[in-house]
Write a structure and sequence with these properties.
- With about 130 residues, this protein is an alpha/beta fold.
- It is built from four helices and six strands, in the order H-E-E-H-H-E-E-H-E-E.
- The protein is globular.
């Protein structure tokens, strides 16, 4: 069940303003929020040019046969370097977890989390990684 909270009018007016500020600060925008690249749909919540470029490089960093298994890569501009990767139905293999993680590290230098969606209850969450080892 979804709970609702009544906000004072002043607070409610600030929410769209904060959204606009966050969107502007996300970086230079592309003329489109997504496109098909080598058979993979690439999408950025706020059409951030740098995110679209990183996702294109992610596809390039994947072995060809693994890239063909992917349907969509989406970046949540609101969260920054958070990705959702959707695997084509019936094409999940456990090795995708590591191949995707490696490709994102190679393409973007790190991430704030990757959710891999796949049919049949497969898929996984990959914890944030910026290459720092403790």
């Amino acid at each position: 069940m979804v709970e609702f909270t009544d906000l004072p009018p002043e607070a409610a007016e600030l929410i769209p303003r904060q959204y606009d500020i966050d969107r502007v600060e996300a970086g230079q925008k592309a003329p489109v929020s997504g496109f098909l690249y080598r058979g993979v749909q690439i999408e950025s919540r706020w059409a951030v040019l740098a995110e679209l470029d990183i996702m294109r490089r992610i596809v390039d960093a994947l072995p060809e046969l693994m890239a063909r298994r992917l349907e969509i890569i989406w970046c949540d501009s609101n969260a920054g370097a958070c990705y959702t990767v959707t695997v084509r139905p019936g094409l999940w293999v456990p090795a995708l977890r590591w191949v995707i993680a490696d490709a994102v590290m190679e393409a973007g230098g790190g991430h704030n989390g990757i959710m891999v969606e796949a049919d049949g209850g497969n898929g996984c969450d990959i914890d944030l990684d910026w290459g720092e080892r403790y």
